[in-house]
Amino acid sequence: MAGRHTIILMQPSQNRGSRTFMDYNSVNHALDGICGLYERKIRDINPMVPNITYDITDLYNFIDGLADISALV
C-alpha cells in the first residue's frame, strides 16, 4: 500500500489527555512508526542494552496494551 497517506490515532493510556496522532506517507511507514514506538519503549526500560530484540508476540502485546489505536488510510 505504498503511497497511501495514513494517519494513526492513538491513546496509550485510559487518560484522554494521552490521545495523539501520527501522520505518515504510506501504510508501510505507519507500521514502521508503530514498531519504532515499541522499540523506544524497550530502550527506555533497558537503556544499557545496546541491541534490542523482540518477538512479534511482544509487539502484538504492546499494541493490545494501548487503550485505543486506529488507522485512517
TrEMBL record:
InterPro entries xref list: EHR_sf (IPR035912), ERH (IPR000781)
Entries under Gene3D superfamilies matching the protein: Enhancer of rudimentary
Protein name: Enhancer of rudimentary homolog
Gene name tied to this protein: LOC100821836
Coiled-coil residue spans: none
Protein family membership: Belongs to the E(R) family.
